[in-house]
Amino acid sequence: MLNKVMLIGRLGGDPEVRYTSNGKPVAGFSLATTEKFTDKTSGERREETQWHRIVAWGKLAEICSQYLRKGSRIYLEGKLVYRKWEDNSGVSRTSADIRMDSMVMLDNKRPDGSAGDVPF
Fold it and tell me: N or C: which terminus of the chain carries fewer CB neighbours within 10 A?
C-alpha cells in the first residue's frame, strides 16, 4: 500500500505553531497549488488553484516556523490523513490534511529577506 503526496506550492499564510501537552511542536499552514491550462471549448488560458492544509511535527515544525512565511515556495512530501471531530454545535466534521514528512525550500531568500541560500 502507498499513501504519498508530493506538492509544489506557495504558503497562504505564516505557519502557526502550537505545542502538545507533552511539549512536542506542531505547525499548520495552507499551501496553494496552481495549474494553468487552456480551456478546450473557449481556447482561453485558465488558472485553477487548489488549497491544501499542511501539518508538520517535531523538528520539521520548528524549521517551518523559523524559515517559512506567507508566499514562500516549497516542495513537500507527506501523506494524506483524514481527521474527524465534532464542532461546537455538535455536527460531525471531517477534513483531509497532508502530514508533511520532508520539505525543500525553493525560494532563494533568507528569512530576513536578503538573497542567498537558506543556511541548512
Answer: N
42: helix, coil or strand? Answer: coil
* Residue 59 three-state SS: helix
Task: Spell out, as residue ranges, where the chain has pLDDT lower than 70.
Answer: 109-120
Half-sphere exposure (CA, 13 Å, Cβ side) for 89? 2
pLDDT per residue as tens digits for the range 18-32:
999 999 999 999 999
Cα separation, 28 vs 15, whole angstroms: 6
Contact 17, 61 (CB under 8 A): yes
Domain topology for 5-37+45-105? OB fold (Dihydrolipoamide Acetyltransferase, E2P) (2.40.50)
What kind and span of H or E run contains 38?
A: strand 25-38
Residues contacting 106, CB < 8 A, separation 6+: 8, 73, 74, 75
- pTM metric for this prediction: 0.82
pLDDT at position 45? 94
